[in-house]
Amino acid sequence: MRQWDLNTGQCVMTMDILWAISHPTAAPGTTLPAHLFPGAAAAAGTFAVPTPPYADGTWELYQDFVGALQFWGYALVSGSGDGAVRMWDMRTGQPHRTLLGHTAPVTCLQFDELHIVSGSLDKSIRIWDVRTGGIFETLKYDHAVTALQFDTRKIVAATGENGVKIYNRTSMQQSTLLTNGHTRPVERLRYMDRYMVSGGRDSIVKIWAL
Predict the structure, then answer these.
(1) Given phi > 0 = left and psi -120 to 50 = alpha, else beta, which region is 57?
(2) Total domains present in the chain
(3) What is the DSSP string of 175-199?
(4) Given this model, what pLDDT does residue 56 score?
(5) If you compute the radius of gyration of the chain from its CA atoms, what whole number of angstroms results?
(6) C-alpha angle 135/140/141, rounded to 5°?
(7) What pTM was computed for the model?
(8) Contact status, residue 100 vs residue 87, Cβ threshold 8 Å
(9) Residue 165's domain is classified under what CATH number?
(10) What's the whole-number mean pLDDT along residues 88-98?
(11) DSSP 1
(12) Where are the alpha helices (DSSP H) in 25-155?
């Protein structure tokens, strides 16, 4: 990961995921299971993992990568190919906490002052407590999670299906947007206020009223 000065166009800091994998910042006594995090056992090598199949039966292959990141102020959170969610201090370029729970690469995440929400190829969304680093809640799906966005009321996610999943954080109920929707799995989405935009493997962008 690189931090850039927009005024000069110069890179001012590089944060190395492979270095972070080989220098885990988990709690004392916690180790990275080699069968779940092969990147930790061979940080200098290539970590390739196939996705679980989409609803239409297709597969993809992912290499070492930073699958998601977000920053605010001096705080940066990344999700990477080893399945870990890392919290970084952008003043030093060092990770100060590694959140372990996903068993496949992280593809999307978002955080606010209370929670980090991350999605993964392990077919799950995990909600983390920013203060303790513990898992607050886990949502399971039938296919890989490729995109998400959340607010205080809901989590909206693309989960390898033709519809968009909406999780109500108050009632803890799941619903799916399907009517006049995509004909192949949804890959990306964003929403604002009452409207959502989704892009699918059918090469179509849909605009929804939530």
Answers:
(1) left
(2) 1
(3) EEE-TT--SS-EEEEEEETTEEEEE
(4) 61
(5) 17
(6) 150
(7) 0.79
(8) no
(9) 2.130.10.10
(10) 91
(11) -
(12) 38-41
